[in-house]
Design a protein that fits this description.
8 strands
């Protein structure tokens, strides 16, 4: 796989080392499995509203293409394929792609998985109706370069959804110290708080690439019900929807 300026080899190696655990709901990616349903519902509803599809239908996105950049083991790629999207999953880690391909084969899903980068896809002239960029920007070496490449992959009339974490004292306490050192939800060192991005900064970067911001959505964890939900609180986790 070709190296790209936005790729951080240390971050790639970190996730490659635990690639075999992507689909274990009780393993190192357990928090992501818990987080996944709220992400899936949000993506489904936003894409359905944007493209005028019925979100309640079985395969509402037939005829539409989707790129899951930084797809990991395919936790989002597979449900997106089941919703009818022609899915391409891209990740800088060969081991992650190996895990994703094996699981998709077991699931009987035709997903195009590639160990590649956004920059390479741009050079190839690829474009998609939807580009998912979920929990990736906080792990790249050059956010500006990475976002420019990713947004160039959005077709005219298409959308991108970017999910990441805000750079606040609350996110430091909960997403970094709490999740990694107190509760042990994530392996220590999973995140670098210095790489977290305020929503205004992310939205400005998207606008600089020629996109128009549509929505800023917070996601919060409720310790009483022990689940995630959409909220107005963007202090820790948030998602941005933008269109070309």
């Amino acid at each position: 796989m070709s190296n790209s300026a936005s790729i951080d080899p240390v971050e790639v190696a970190k996730f490659s080392a635990i690639a075999a655990e992507w689909w274990d709901p009780a393993g190192k990616f357990a928090p992501l499995h818990k987080f996944n349903p709220v992400r899936l519902e949000f993506i489904r509803n936003e894409a359905a509203a944007h493209f005028g599809r019925d979100a309640r239908s079985l395969r509402p996105f037939e005829g539409r293409s989707l790129l899951d950049i930084g797809c990991g083991g395919g936790l989002l790629s597979e449900p997106m394929a089941r919703l009818g999207f022609a899915v391409t999953g891209a990740d800088a880690s060969d081991r992650n792609i190996g895990t994703a391909k094996a699981h998709a084969t077991q699931s009987g899903l035709g997903i195009e998985y590639r160990a590649t980068t956004a920059e390479v896809l741009v050079d190839e002239g690829a474009s998609f109706d939807v580009v998912l960029n979920m929990e990736v920007v906080e792990h790249v070496a050059d956010v500006s370069s990475y976002l420019k490449a990713c947004t160039r992959l959005v077709k005219p009339g298409g959308i991108t959804i970017v999910a990441t974490m805000n750079k606040t004292l609350k996110s430091l306490a909960l997403a970094k110290i709490g999740a990694e050192y107190v509760l042990g939800w994530l392996p220590r060192g999973t995140h670098d708080w210095n790489r977290f991005i305020p929503p205004a900064e992310l939205q400005a970067s998207l606008e600089e690439t020629g996109l128009s911001n549509l929505k800023l959505q917070g996601v919060s964890f409720n310790p009483l019900s022990w689940d995630w939900h959409l909220s107005s609180d963007v202090d820790v986790n948030y998602m941005v929807v933008a269109k070309r």
